[in-house]
Each structure stands twice: as structure tokens, then as C-alpha cells.
Write a structure and sequence with these properties.
There is one protein chain. By secondary structure, the chain is an alpha/beta fold. The strands form two sheets. It has a six-stranded parallel sheet, covered by helices on one side. Strands 1-2 form a two-stranded antiparallel ribbon. Helix 5 packs parallel to helix 6 and helix 6 runs parallel beside helix 8. The longest helix has 20 residues. 22% of the residues are buried.
Length: 256
């Protein structure tokens, strides 16, 4: 009986040994030799370096001038330029966060400040307009571009910046969540957006086009080919297409 018991233990040991997998050892990559993952020429994970600003308790802005930041965080900010309680604090915050994009609404001077302060951040400027949803219909698209150039050229001159600094800022337009009641109205908006994008590109300006509202563009609009020329102008000019997305998870008044 004892021999049988010993045999069973031996068989059990062999079965366990066969099922056991040898450990796998991974050689660590030396610090500083990592290869970052790049998407659209922007690194996903921030590379914390000595050039990153340090948060201090002093009100003065801490930023390393002349040393461009090599990466940005895939975060976007929407700022009402006329409603910032502490502009110095906000600038320090943005320097430390290093967002990939910032939408500045209304204040051209502060848009230029952020452009100069955050070399790796796409700064988008949006001007308020009384005809928000039909702006590109009632206000000729070329006028919007020319006004943008004039305002930013004068402001840059006042601030001691290059007069063509506006070319480093993306222009939001030519409408915000454009309204249309049918295919004819939509086509008018698309035609105006194409003029807007082509004229802006001729002036060396990048724009955020469309800024479409949620649920307004239907599959049949795209399938019919209405957006073909619009998308061509968008890609040919290296512009951005703006699309609004609100959900009740983030905004109490949103719609999903």
C-alpha cells in the first residue's frame, strides 16, 4: 500500500512539473533610450524634462524661453478671454499642463500671448458674431479672414511681436454650429466654407472649418457627394474640421 502511495506521489510530481512554465525575463530598456509612440507628430505620453515649468507659490510666470517644448499633452482648453479672473495663474497652469490645443474666444491679445508662450500648442481664435449660426452667409467669408488679419496685425505690432504672427493662430469659422433647413441651405454653407478655407490658405492661415452641431449632418448628405468638394478643400489646405459633441455625462445641459 505504501509503495502504491509513493507511486501516486511521483506521478503527481511529474504532472505538476510538466505543467509548470518557466519564468520569462524582460530586459529593461535603459533610461533615456525609449522610443516614444508618435501620432500625428505628437507624443502621446509627456516627456518630463528640465525645460518643463515648475509650479511655485510666487505669482510670477515660470517658463523657459527659447527652448521649445518637445511634446504636448492631448488636452484641449476652451477659454473666454474676457472672463478670466486670474490671467497670470491661468498662464502658469497652461505652461505646466502643456495642452495640444487652446481655443481662445474674443481676446486677440491673449491669443497672441498664448501663441508666444506655448510653442507646441495649437491656439485657435474665435471672434463673437451676432449671426453665430449663419455667419458665413450674412458675412462674406473673405471679410472674416481680412478682419482677422487686420486685428491681429495691429495687436501684434502693439505687443512687439512679428506682424505676421496671425499665421501661427488657427481661425475659428466661418460659422459656429451653422443652421440649415434643407439641402439647398446646406449647400450654400458648404460653398461659403470652401471659399473661406481657400482664401485663408492663400493668406497662410489655418482654419477650423464647419464646427458642425451634433445630429445636423445625416448619412445621406455625405453619401450624395455634397461634402466631396468641402473635404477636398479641407485636406488640400491642411485645415481642421470642427465638430461639436455634447453628452450628458460631461455637461448637464448636453444631449447625446
Amino acid at each position: 500500500m505504501s509503495k502504491l502511495y509513493a507511486l501516486l506521489l511521483a506521478v503527481l510530481f511529474l504532472l505538476t512539473a510538466c505543467a509548470y512554465e518557466s519564468p520569462v525575463f524582460v530586459t529593461a530598456t535603459p533610461v533615456g533610450s525609449e522610443v516614444p509612440t508618435i501620432v500625428n507628430n505628437m507624443t502621446i505620453e509627456p516627456d518630463v524634462t528640465a525645460t518643463q515649468a515648475i509650479v511655485t507659490n510666487t505669482p510670477s510666470l515660470t517658463v523657459t524661453k527659447g527652448v521649445p517644448q518637445s511634446v504636448c499633452n492631448r488636452i484641449s482648453y476652451n477659454i473666454n478671454g474676457f472672463a478670466v479672473a486670474d490671467w497670470t495663474y491661468l498662464k502658469q497652469h497652461l505652461v505646466n499642463i502643456r495642452p495640444c490645443s487652446v481655443l481662445m474666444m474674443g481676446d486677440s491679445g491673449r491669443a497672441l500671448e498664448l501663441m508666444d508662450l506655448l510653442p507646441d500648442t495649437l491656439v485657435v481664435f474665435r471672434a463673437y458674431h451676432e449671426s453665430d449660426g449663419s455667419q458665413c452667409i450674412v458675412d462674406p467669408p473673405r471679410n472674416q479672414v481680412d478682419t482677422f488679419i487686420a486685428v491681429f496685425t495691429n495687436k501684434a505690432r502693439e505687443m512687439g511681436l512679428p506682424e505676421n504672427s496671425y499665421q501661427r493662430i488657427a481661425l475659428y469659422g466661418c460659422s459656429n454650429e451653422p443652421s440649415f433647413g434643407g439641402d439647398t441651405s446646406l449647400q450654400r454653407i458648404l460653398d461659403a466654407e470652401i471659399v473661406f478655407m481657400n482664401y485663408a490658405r492663400s493668406k497662410g492661415i489655418t482654419v477650423v472649418s464647419g464646427n458642425w452641431a451634433v445630429g445636423t449632418i445625416q448619412p445621406e448628405h455625405v453619401e450624395s457627394g455634397m461634402f466631396r468638394d468641402y473635404l477636398w478643400a479641407l485636406a488640400n489646405g491642411n485645415h481642421y474640421m470642427g465638430v461639436h459633441e455634447y453628452t450628458t455625462y460631461f455637461l448637464p445641459f448636453g444631449t447625446g
